[in-house]
Each structure stands twice: as C-alpha cells, then as structure tokens.
C-alpha cells in the first residue's frame, strides 16, 4: 500500500458524524442537512434535454481534450463572463470531470516527489477545501496553512516565513472562498502576483462558486485579474465547474484554463489517468456553458433565501451577506462551534458544520473555531424554519 495514504486526515463530514454519533436527534423530526454544500435546485431542462439527446455517444470513446465545440463554448463563456478575456480553446482550456477531480490531479502534475532535498511546499488558505491537503500529501509534498484573517477571511500572505516561500511550488486560492464567501479583490491579486514573480510558484485558483453572487457584484477571476494588470497567464490555472453554477453536481463537469504549458502537461497526465469526459456529458456541458438564463434564475433563488434568512439570524447573531457563494459563516457568540453544532442536532436535528473541522490547528490557532458553516441549499421554507429554530434555541440556552 502507498504509505502516503496514512497521512490523510478524516474529511470534515466524517468528523461531524463521529461528533454526533452518540447524540440522539429528537424523535419524529427529520434531519435538516445544512452542513453539505450540495445544490438542491432542479437541474435545468436545457441541460437534461441535451444530455438525453446525446446518449448514443455512450457507444464511443472520447478524447481527453474534449470536443472542439466544448472547448469553444468554455472560451466563449469566459470571454462573456470576464470582460473580454481571450483564451485559446486549443491550448488554454481543458475539460475536466469537475473541479475537485482536477484540483487533485493537477497537484500531482506540479509536484516533483523525486527531487532531492526538502519536500516541495503547497500553501493553502485555512479554513480550506480538504482536497488541497490530500492532493499535496499524496503528491509527496508538504502543506503549509496560512490563516484567513477576519472579518473577510482572506489569506495572510505577509506572515508566511521567507524559508517557506522559497520552497513553495504551488499556492491554492479559493475565491469566492469556501466557507466564508469572501472574494479576492484586484489589489489582493496584485499582491499575490508580486509574490509569484519573486518566488516562481504556480497559482491554482479554485473558482467553483464564482457564479453565486449578489447585487450584480461579479467576483473577479484570477485570469481576469492578470489581464487587467497587464500580465500573461503564465503559472496561473483557473478551475471552474458546472456543479454550483448550473445545479448539476452529478454531471461531474468543469474546465481548467490558463497557462498553455501547464495544461499541456496536465493533458498528458490525464490521458494516462483515463479522465476523458463522455460525449453525452460534453454535449450537456456545451448547452450549460452557452446558456445564462438558468444561472440568473439560480442566483435569484439564493438571493431570496439570504433575503429571508439573514434578518432572522441577525436577531441573535453578528452575521452578514457573503460576498459570494451560498454559505453563511456564522460566528458563535460563546466561541464553541462544536458545542453549538451538537446542540442543534440534539434539540432540532439540524446539521451544521463546525468551523474547526474545516481548518487545521496552527501556531496562530485554528481560524475556524468559533464559527459554523451553514449551507443554504435546501428549499426556502426549510432554510427559514431552520433559521428560526437556531435563533430560538440560542436565545433559550
């Protein structure tokens, strides 16, 4: 067995199950799962129709790089979405089986586990999406966490030691951030690009929540920021997905874009890895990237939930509308996020994710402690009722 498997840590949801296993939920109350960020809005008909119309494609093998029409649809979407961003669909776009799969496998391409000397370092925000850590460890690297700073929970680049930067091969960015919903601004991108110029690392930008935003404030993407700052996309790769944008997490479809040399190497890896997207999924993806009406409706539904849920929670908690994403990063007044989550489960069968499970302990502390993540993915009635229950339980405790 690969000994690096022993370095992996339990996923946050496994930790939550362990924390709740000996606590019975109230009898007769159905669980209210607000801990997992799985979209629940219906899959758009334009996508399901395209999928079923292409089922004969199951009889054929597909190419790793995907159909030219799919790569062009991705390039067209990026141009519309990111203010005229120009990407070459032949060399700067690669379809992938969802952003999670791509984030993991791309890390294996970037890291060199055969090099002599200290392990290569990958820097991750903290709290973080756990795939960043698992990909790094299984790639033979070392993960370094930089704590996100409240109130916006953005990475603290200035406090990373010089010796860490010198060994850094890649930096993960999550913008919009999971779990806080914060968005990297242009000046923050400029700061990171300056560090990249100095130390030569790769930037892997996870942007799977980019289309869940409010009040017309579109999150800026890494490639868009580079273009606005007069930079090339050398050393930069963006990861995006249809899962959140189009409510099709089961489709397992997204694309990566950026540095052509990095994508060429990534394509080679994926050819051996067997990561080609089936033809029906490709045609469904073309339909999805070419349509914005369902995305606009999706945002409207999330906005409606926030409009109804936030005023309720604000009766008892210091909580705000996130800059993007469908998460509420709720500060727990007494600071004990784990006790808060256990209490919600025991008294109301409501599941939320303790922030400490979404982060790692560092010398500066665990930045997730004192927060819980609430995913507003259920229907609006369920979300409103859960918010009312949370406020009632907190006030009654």
TrEMBL record:
InterPro entries: Aminotransferase_I/II_large, DapC_beta/gammaproteobac, LL-DAP_aminotransferase, PyrdxlP-dep_Trfase, PyrdxlP-dep_Trfase_major, PyrdxlP-dep_Trfase_small. Gene3D superfamilies: Aspartate Aminotransferase, domain 1 (3.90.1150.10), Type I PLP-dependent aspartate aminotransferase-like (Major domain) (3.40.640.10). One of its GO terms (molecular function) is succinyldiaminopimelate transaminase activity. CDD domains: AAT_like. The keyword Transferase applies. Residues 33-389 form the Aminotransferase class I/classII large domain. Keywords: Aminotransferase, Transferase. Its cofactor is pyridoxal 5'-phosphate. The keyword Transferase applies. This is Putative 8-amino-7-oxononanoate synthase. The lineage of its organism: Bacteria, Pseudomonadati, Pseudomonadota, Betaproteobacteria, Neisseriales. The gene is dapC.
């Amino acid at each position: 067995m690969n000994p690096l498997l022993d370095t992996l840590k339990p996923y946050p949801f496994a930790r939550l199950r362990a924390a709740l296993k000996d606590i019975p939920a109230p009898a007769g109350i159905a669980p209210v799962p607000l801990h997992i960020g799985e979209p629940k809005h219906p899959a758009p008909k334009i996508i399901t129709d395209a999928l079923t119309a292409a089922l004969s494609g199951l009889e054929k093998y597909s190419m790793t790089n995907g159909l030219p029409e799919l790569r062009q649809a991705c390039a067209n979407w990026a141009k519309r979405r990111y203010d005229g961003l120009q990407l070459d669909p032949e060399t700067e776009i690669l379809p992938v089986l969802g952003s999670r799969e791509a984030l993991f496998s791309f890390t294996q391409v970037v890291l060199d586990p055969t090099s002599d000397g200290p392990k290569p370092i990958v820097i991750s925000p903290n709290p973080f999406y756990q795939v960043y850590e698992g990909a790094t460890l299984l790639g033979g690297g070392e993960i370094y966490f930089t704590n996100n700073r409240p109130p916006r929970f953005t990475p603290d680049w200035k406090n990373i030691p010089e010796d860490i930067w010198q060994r850094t091969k890649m930096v993960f960015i999550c913008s919009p951030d999971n779990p806080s919903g914060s968005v990297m601004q242009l000046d923050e991108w400029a700061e990171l690009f300056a560090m990249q110029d100095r130390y030569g690392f790769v930037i892997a930008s996870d942007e799977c929540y980019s289309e869940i935003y409010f009040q017309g404030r579109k999150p800026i993407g890494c490639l868009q920021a580079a273009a606005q700052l007069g930079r090339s996309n050398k050393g930069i790769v963006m990861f995006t997905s249809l899962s959140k944008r189009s409510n099709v997490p089961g489709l397992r479809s997204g694309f990566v874009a950026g540095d052509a040399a990095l994508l060429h190497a990534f394509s080679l890896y994926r050819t051996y890895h067997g990561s080609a997207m089936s033809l029906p999924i490709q045609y469904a993806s073309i339909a999805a990237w070419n349509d914005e009406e369902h995305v606009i409706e999706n945002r409207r539904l999330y906005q409606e939930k926030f409009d109804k849920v936030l005023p309720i929670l604000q009766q008892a908690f210091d909580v705000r509308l996130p800059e993007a994403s469908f998460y509420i990063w709720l500060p727990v007044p007494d600071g004990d996020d784990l006790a808060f989550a256990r209490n919600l489960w025991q008294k109301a069968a409501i599941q939320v994710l303790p922030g400490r499970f979404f982060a790692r302990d560092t010398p500066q502390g665990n930045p997730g402690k004192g927060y819980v993540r609430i995913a507003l993915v259920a229907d609006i009635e369920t979300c409103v009722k859960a918010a009312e229950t949370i406020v009632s339980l907190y006030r009654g405790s």
